[in-house]
Amino acid sequence: MHYLIDGHNLIARVPGLSLADPDDEVKLLQLLKRWAAADPRRKVTVIFDKGLPGGEAKHLSGGGVRAIFAPDNRSADA
Known about the structure:
Elements: E1 2-6, H1 7-11, H2 24-37, E2 43-48, E3 55-56, E4 65-69
Parallel strand pairs: 1-2, 2-4
Antiparallel strand pairs: 3-4
């Protein structure tokens, strides 16, 4: 199954994660990679609001998880 996740919305709801943490996105991706590894059928695409240049963050993707940052003029909701 493929999951599409708004990363910052999920960070705000996961105990132990905080949007105020400068490493919040990396910490969420680590959690999701462990979760995806538990079942190889799980594929996850996480879209974050601006933070890096828009597009896929290949250095953060992997392990069944694809990290994408929305361009500056768009939000993850769009």
